[in-house]
Amino acid sequence: MFLLNLGILIIGFVILVKGADLFVDGSSNLAKNFRVPSLIIGLTIVALGTSAPELAVSTSAALQGSNEIALSNVVGSNIFNLLCVLGICAIYHPVPVEKGVLKRDFPVSIVTTLLVLVLTCASTIFSGRWRLLEMEDEAGTINRKIGMILVILFVGYIVYLIMDAKHHPEQENELEKQPVWKCVLLIVIGLILIVSGGQTVVYSAKAIARTLGMTETLIGLTIVAVGTSLPELVTSIVAARKGENSLAVGNAIGSNIFNLLLILGVSSMIQPVSVNLASVYDMGILIIVSIVAYLFSLTSNKINRFEGIAMILIYVADVFFAIIR
Fold first, then answer.
1. Which of 138, 181, 283, 294, by CA, is between 20 and 30 Å from 83?
2. What gap in Å lies between CA 267 and CA 299, rounded to an integer?
């Protein structure tokens, strides 16, 4: 039974990655047909496409009442993006960090994580009641009002990116356009695969967690988070191989902001998400590793190989801590 569920989990991940790939291709080519600048496409459609697996898994988990997977998937994916995606790319080749990412996207990612933590757990943290809580006790809730706030912030962030892109236009490359009908078909097929893959991953992950005696928080933080972060990892590695290293940081940080604002917001609007003490620790860890990655980037406007190795080791230590607790 365990091997069957493991096989279903792997199939679900494959469906997710393929669906996200088709969605990005179709959306990008459709935008090209309507002469939307590639910069805006990258900041919106591609970032959303690579975050689509997280959206599918978290919303599916929320609909099934598996709130722990919904939250831990987002937090775990963000930690993986920062430490492993950027770390692996830096080991392959030092990753330059653009000034726009340092001044805007990195701080937004850190502040957003802190905002989510404070909004959901302020009363518990500042009252000191967390000292009496067990790992699985409820420490707070991301309710529908908080979810709506996160979605509104997401819309504002996207509007700001589009306005900023219009004020800083780039030279566009002429690419061969695909027929509109083909673009729409790719988008529809991609969305179908993403949704079905997300439901498959949640179902099999819950089954594996029960079989191994693991909590949904742990499996969401590790197995599910890594699987849904595969599009970000693949995209960043391909960018590094092509010499477009600056895209790696933008992809990882942009996806993190999408995960926190859009995915967590939508999931909590569908079904309020309970936050246990383990998730509070994980959000605290996410803030710390975000600051570490930010400081690495500030030192020389790039992440070098030594720092990349350090980030991978930090991720291994975090997973070990999650398993031990």
1. 138
2. 36
